[in-house]
Design goal:
mainly beta
């Protein structure tokens, strides 16, 4: 009997790598900002094939499953960039570093504009160029087609959180400070999506894996694990409100079959055995939403992979 148990474990685990999830390959984009902002050439990074692009053009996200908070924006004819995700040295090579910082510039060398941006990585694509600052989630096409059923998300990570207890809200000419905390967040959602006759995108939540990092880590955590809960996560032990359905200000967007940007209407929880059609992975240096966060939060990510119970 002992021999049989050794030969046939109760739940064998299989781990699959995620495309470009080792962060050893990067596309480097050189984007020239408008003359009114100084006309500098800024470097913007994409997790994807090794390539250098020396022109102001939207990126072809068909080359990768990864997008980020890095933005190529053109608002009212003015070209601006934001870089809060970039390569860094990791435990096994190159990793991704996500940082919460001000994206600032001076208009005509005089008036300074500061917008707080939180470093983020996600599966999907940025709809470039970004043409406004209202509802930034609507400029992101969230999620990728996905039909598998992983048991957990695995990755290596390191976090530095200033833990000052102070949050900053920064939009253009206004900055405001107030008390609060801003944990880093790692979230994998599995959804069953469908489109109605009017092109609206509906979804039910099939699987949920959400973990937060509330304080600085003691170096790298190898094999950080976020288990996937199938079915109604709100009825499972350890459920927190931030694991709930994405509604209201948390609503994500996607592009429908007609090429239109539509909110993803998460209508409820699927049954545990229901299939999924899409996966949404979001990794952020903070979880307070657009233009709000703890300045200095930094999260390093490497070796993203999925675990399966065979």
């Amino acid at each position: 009997m002992l021999l049989l148990v050794a030969l046939f474990p109760a739940r064998a685990q299989r781990v699959e790598k995620v495309p470009y999830g080792d962060f050893e390959h990067w596309t480097v984009r050189h984007i020239k900002e408008s003359a009114v902002l100084g006309g500098e050439v800024k470097t913007v990074y994409v997790v994807g094939p090794d390539e250098t692009i020396d022109k102001n053009t939207p990126y072809d996200y068909a080359k990768t499953i990864w997008a980020s908070s890095n933005a190529y924006a053109r608002v009212s004819g003015v070209t601006k960039t934001s870089v809060t995700m970039e390569p860094d040295q990791g435990p096994t090579g190159t990793c991704a570093r996500l940082t919460t910082r001000f994206a600032s510039c001076k208009v005509a060398g005089l008036v300074e504009i500061k917008v707080l941006a939180t470093g983020a990585l996600y599966w999907g694509r940025m709809l470039e160029p970004v043409t406004g600052v209202k509802n930034p989630y609507s400029y992101m096409d969230w999620g990728i087609p996905f039909t598998k059923r992983p048991s957990a998300l695995l990755l290596d990570c390191k976090a530095e959180l200033p833990a000052t207890g102070v949050l900053t809200k920064g939009t253009t000419f206004r900055q405001k400070e107030f008390p609060g905390e801003d944990p880093c967040q790692i979230m994998l959602l599995l959804q069953y999506r469908w489109e109605d006759a009017d092109g609206n995108i509906h979804a039910k939540r099939v699987g949920t894996a959400v973990r937060r990092i509330r304080k600085s880590t003691d170096g790298w955590i190898r094999g950080f694990r976020a288990p996937v809960v199938y079915g109604d996560a709100s009825k499972q032990p350890g459920y927190q409100a931030y694991m709930g359905l994405l509604r209201g200000d948390l609503t994500l967007y996607a592009v429908n079959s007609r090429g239109q940007r539509k909110p993803i209407l998460e209508e409820g929880w699927a049954a545990p055995e229901d299939p999924c059609t899409h996966a949404v992975l979001q990794i952020t240096a903070g979880c307070q939403g657009a233009f709000t966060g703890a300045l200095g939060n930094t999260l390093w990510i490497d070796n993203v992979r999925l675990e399966y119970a065979d």
